[in-house]
Structures are given as C-alpha cells and as structure tokens.
C-alpha cells in the first residue's frame, strides 16, 4: 500500500490557520499581558515609595519641636530624636538630704533654668538607651536653637540614680537652657544621626518613560546654625526611592487647631516604563517644647 503525505495546499492551509490563530492571540492576549506587566510595575513603585514615605513620616513625628526647616519644596530638614520624656524641674522635698544639696546618692538632680547646669534626673523610661556623645535637647522654643546649640548639650555621662529620684541621671556639658522653659519635656538626639535632610534630586523623565530623580536621606552631617538657603547635595546620602518624576514638600507650622503643632505634607510622582504612580502623605509634628 502506497503511503500518502501532505499536499502543498494542505501545508498552506495549516500555515494560514496558524497565522490567524497567532494574530488572534496577539490581539486578545497581548493587552492582557501588558496590563499584567504594568500592574506589576505600579505595585513595585507603590511599595518602594510607601516605605520611603513611612520613614520620612516617622522622622517627622519624632522631630524635636520647632526643628523642621524647609528651604525649598524639594527638600526638608529636621532633627529626629530617639527618645522623649520628662525631667525633674525641682528638688525632691521628701527624699533630698537637704535643700540645694549636691546631686548624689541622697540628693536629686533637677534643672535650674536660671543658671548653667550639668546634671538632671529623668522620670521617663527610655526605649533606646542614651549614650555618651548623644545630645540632650531642652526647651527648643526657637527653631534655630537646636541647630546653634542654644537648646542642646552633649551628654557626658549616663547613670542610674536612686530609684526614688528617677529612672536615669544624665550628665552633660555645662549649659543654661531657656529661662522660659517650664514643661519638663526633653529629647535625646543620637550622635550617629544628628540633623537629617530629605532631598529630591535629579527630577525628570527619560526617553523610555522612566523617572530620573530620587529621594535621598542625608544624616550625620552635624548641625548648621544658619537656615539653609537651598537643598544640599545628595552626594553620599542614602537612597530611599528612585524613578521620581517630581516631588513636592510642604511645611506649615500652624496647620490644624493650634499653633503648637506643625504639619509636613509630601507628594511623590514616580514613573517606570510609562506607568505613573502618585503617593501623598502627611504627619503632624509637636512644636510645643
């Protein structure tokens, strides 16, 4: 029996059918595939930007009162603290060995704002233990004070006093804090961080539809007494998020019901392969020292 193969017409028909099927798949499946890829890009943009915003807002909420500075809409400076609490504002009438005794095992250490002091007891347990070299900030009523050093002293000793006097005793370089300070609140700023700048740099979009900018976190550069006139260079700063097309930062010291609170608001526009994502967030900062 003679075997029979495919004819040329049959082969042509098969090629035509496969071509039609391929065209149908391209028309109907490619948009779905592109949508899936674009959704992945948007999700990646959102997750990355969300982490960066959360870090910025955490620093805002932990900023020393009146320390937020905004030289331009593309950057913001602040002094985040590792601890907040209350300190002793008067001697211990019940347990001190005598009036105006020298701080020690039988004498409390309290803040006298009428003259320079070097030791104070604090009542608040601290989540992060302060270290020698960290900065004690008290009564930062003027925004420039923490930067110039008027409301800031370097810790020289950290010890545990008699339990009836407080949770910790902080020694610091001689400093006279503001005579108008009466709230008893303090902040501790880590020496390995100091002031912090968030900077948006290189904003724009390339020919492939990708953002060219990035958000950076600059820290451990010290304290600059003068109010910044412009955003600093981001060289050497930590990259928080890239693919930025634009960013806008707003700071209002009187946002909300009272002037004791400030409000920092930020909007970030990101783009990757033509897909755009916009995130906005804001946080209050306590401006009452």
Question: Secondary-structure blueprint of this entry?
Answer:
Blueprint: H1 8-61, E1 69-72, E2 75-78, E3 83-86, E4 117-122, E5 135-138, H2 145-148, E6 152-159, E7 168-175, E8 185-189, E9 196-201, E10 213-219, E11 238-252, E12 261-272, E13 275-286
Antiparallel strand pairs: 1-2, 2-9, 3-8, 4-7, 5-6, 5-8, 6-7, 9-10, 10-11, 11-12, 12-13
At a glance:
By secondary structure, this protein is of the alpha+beta class.
Let me know the number of strands: 13
SSE arrangement, N to C: HEEEEEHEEEEEEEE
Number of helices: 2
- Measured by DSSP, the beta-strand proportion falls in 25-35%
Tell me the span between the first and last alpha carbons: 104 Å
Spatially, the strands of the biggest sheet line up as 1-2-9-10-11-12-13
Rg calculated over all Cα atoms: 30 Å
How many domains would you count in the coordinates?
2
Helical content band: 10-25%
What is the residue-averaged pLDDT?
Answer: 87
Question: Which spans of ≥5 residues are poorly predicted at pLDDT below 50?
Answer: none
**Main sheet properties:** 7 strands, antiparallel
* Global geometry: elongated
Structural class based on helices, strands and sheet pairing = alpha+beta
Write up this protein.
The chain is α+β, with helices and mostly antiparallel strands and 289 residues long. The chain folds into two domains: 40-79 and 194-286, no CATH class; 83-189, no CATH class. It has two helices and 13 strands; from the N terminus they run H-E-E-E-E-E-H-E-E-E-E-E-E-E-E. The protein has a seven-stranded antiparallel β-sheet. Strand 6 (152-159) and strand 7 (168-175) form a beta hairpin. The model has no long low-confidence stretch (mean pLDDT 87).
């Amino acid at each position: 029996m003679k075997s029979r193969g495919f004819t040329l017409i049959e082969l042509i028909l098969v090629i035509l059918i496969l071509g039609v099927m391929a065209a149908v798949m391209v028309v109907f499946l490619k948009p779905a595939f592109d949508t899936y890829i674009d959704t992945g890009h948007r999700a990646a943009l959102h997750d990355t930007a969300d982490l960066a915003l959360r870090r910025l807002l955490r620093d805002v909420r932990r900023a020393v009162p009146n320390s937020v500075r905004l030289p331009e809409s593309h950057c913001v400076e602040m002094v985040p603290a590792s601890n907040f609490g209350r300190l002793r504002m008067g001697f211990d009438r019940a347990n001190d060995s005598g009036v105006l005794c020298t701080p020690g095992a039988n004498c409390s250490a309290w803040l006298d704002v009428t003259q320079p002091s070097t030791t104070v007891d604090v009542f608040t347990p601290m989540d992060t233990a302060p270290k020698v070299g960290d900065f004690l900030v008290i009564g930062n009523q003027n925004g420039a004070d923490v930067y110039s050093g008027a409301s800031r002293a370097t810790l020289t000793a950290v010890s545990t006093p008699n339990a009836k006097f407080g949770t910790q005793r902080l020694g610091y370089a001689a400093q006279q804090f503001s005579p108008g300070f009466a709230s008893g609140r303090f902040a501790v700023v880590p020496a390995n961080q100091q002031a912090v700048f968030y900077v948006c740099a290189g904003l724009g979009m390339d020919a492939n539809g990708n953002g060219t900018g990035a958000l950076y976190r600059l820290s451990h550069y010290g304290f600059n007494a003068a109010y910044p006139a412009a955003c600093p260079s981001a060289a050497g700063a930590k990259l928080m998020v890239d693919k930025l097309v634009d960013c806008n930062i707003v700071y209002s010291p009187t946002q909300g019901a009272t002037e004791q609170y400030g409000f920092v608001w930020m909007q970030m526009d990101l783009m990757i392969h033509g897909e755009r994502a916009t995130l906005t967030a804001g946080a209050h900062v306590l401006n009452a020292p």
